## 1
Amino acid sequence: MSASYYGCWSTAETPSARRTELLNRIHKLLLELVPGGAKKYLSADQARAILATIRPRDLVGRTRRRLASELISELVTVDKKIKAADKELTELVASTGSNLRKPHGIGPSGAARLLGDVGNIHRFASRGHFASWNGTAPLDAFSGDQQRHRLSRAGNRRINRVLHIMAVVQLRHDTDGRRYYRRRLAEGKTPMEAMRALKRRLSDVVYRQMTRDAKPAEAAGPGGQRGATLQSSTADPNPQVNTSEQSLPGPADTHDMPQLPPAA
């Protein structure tokens, strides 16, 4: 599964990006048409049901309603394209024998992106190297006698985005990820710091799952050495990125999301 297959679209051209743009525009129009507005994340059917209750009499209102109706029709078309693409990507991911869809928050496109960009997971000597490569390993930052960590801007930003989406999805549901995030907040971390820690933890989850899925033959290259065969994206040929390989907050275990003791 080549990385180029999943990199054929820029972010601005993807159906998902277009869907987000359409939802934002529909939401803005409904705010101007409906007293009290409407929730931001609507399906096409929900938006259409709301629009059916609106009968503006003035020209501006009728124009806004017509624009909203046209955008909803386009949203339906985009949703069909996304559904078809997800089905194709699901089949492609399944054909590789990967179980990347098991961890909560990884969709078909995210799993395909991981397989395409990461290639052979055994080219990373450890989960710390993997986190350094994808930009979730924090960088040490000192301020006087105080030691903190700051966001790393290095690494593969496409994979970093997959992990970010995974974190957002976990926060929206009752998951170990959300409980972990709340524990970090209880420890005094800022929401941004807790989010960084969660993404770092999810990097370990992905690394562990891909290591489980990898065929034994992939662990050794032609010379019989672990990781001798490199399959990297053209944008990130070297897995040894010059960033901190620090693992936060502890070693990974066999669960999809490692359990931590309650915060003091």
## 2
Amino acid sequence: MISPWYQLGYVIPHLYTDLDAYQFYRVAPEGMILVTTGLNLREYSLAAVEQELPALWERFDLLANKKVDRISLSGVPVASALGRTKMLEILSEGRARTGLTCDTDLEAHIAVLQHLGVTRIALATRWPAAVNGALTRYLAEAGIDVIACRSRSRSLAQNKASSAADDHLLALELGGQVLREAPDAQALLMPGGLWYAIHAVALLEAEHGRPVLLNILSTIWAALNAAGERMLYPPDPRWGRVLASLQQPVGPSSSTGCWRTRL
């Protein structure tokens, strides 16, 4: 592999990229790269999101000019604040404007849950009740019920300042609590691009036997699922059930390098 075979355009809600890219390159397969650009979301509110919408089209145009294969808007609170109807209108306009498939982390979560046949989920977040409520309503429009929620309410500034090590422990704490409280939940959703939780996924899945969804996992899944036969390398299944659901070996062993997607 001497050059990338897939470029994922990613509009993040912030002016800088750190854990988004770090977690992407830990879990994405060889040859897949992340092309990022940012907005300047200042807080979790509809007014703050609407203030950034004019800049969003500039970011979409920038990524289209970079010849990315797909564009995804990060930020589950962004989509939740807008509501599903408005968000889908924006994605449709983005496709018409760029000629590319446009997605969001939240729509990628929905696609994964539908792929897995999940309709009842547990939710763990680092957001205030208003954000969790908007997210719950958005998911309900897609036929997905949040039957239990555990949250550590923080502002956007607090989430930006939190440490990766502390957030890993918080993922284990909140994720474990809500899964124990909701035995009927078919999966756990822990959204948040700033939440460093990739190492918590395998631990929670091993203990509770249910898939765990993170933004970066679902967005990579959606991109690779759409890539189909273009997927030169499968993702490593050790990063959890979401990415593992994509791959299935063709031959007697993976040493042949031949894989196909499970659609």
## 3
Amino acid sequence: MYVLIDAGFFVSRLARNWAPQGRFRKWMNRVEANKMSIGHYYNKVRKSLYGELSYLQMRINQAGFGTAEIHMMFDGTEGRQARGNLFPQYKANRVPTSVEEYNASEYSIRDIRDELRAVGMNPDNLRNKWISHYDAEKEADDLIAEFVADHPEDTIMIFTQDSDLYQLRAINETIRFHNFTEEINPIDNGFSYQHYADWKALAGDSSDNIPGVSNLGPKQAAELVINYGSLENIPDPYFLYYTCTETAALVLANVITQYQTDNDITDATMKRKWGAAIMNLKNGQAVKLNQSQYEKLVNCDAIDEGYFQQHNDRDNIMNYRTIIKLPSPLHDGNI
């Protein structure tokens, strides 16, 4: 039996504790006001973090894994760079506001282990017999996935809040998941976990700043995977999208307004017949449309196809799948 813990647990806990009303911030305010010694501060922080470890052990025991071998997986400081080579804005939504220019292929995160060391804790020996794993060039998900791949028939529980790890059931169908509060069961989307990365690439992943196919939600993405399987089998029209720039939209705005006036058509009728995008264009706003939205819009006599540019997003979606896929082909050489 094994327990694998995503050490991002500490990142979220530290963020909460350092928030304006968090305990660490309040204690530091007392230090800065000379109402608490720095030594006392470190003792309180260390005690708080050891309490987090006790909490984890309690949840592990509750799940019936009290005798399991426990492995803690830390994110590498350059872990997101390999994925950043495919998509520079990977995890851009997790970057501090102080970062003016972000490119994931060059970005390094802070090493959470250093923060643990700073208060006198040893990240390689957080609790008796807990085993820590770290690779500067890999994310915690990579370490977890590689461990699972090496133990395809063992009993494993993964503590994480990252749903991307659900795809590991394609390797070990008995894997269990815990979100640090309770055990959870992945939602059955009607397709094999073998195609999880195909689905997520289509649907997008806001937590990692992956956009997916324009205007395509999780339900529609699942239908495509059920009907076609992998991305390679999905017909081209599903990857097409059309854009109208703000400059072109400003020209169209006058045309649409005049057309609506000449034909005495209400806004509600315009939206019903040709989609909400026509009102955006009427207001001079740039739009991005999928194939079906575009086909509906250009049925309007006021809309000239020449104002739109066609794009094929298949290559980008394939890159997103590579980013999401675990174990990562970026690290195992299968790309």
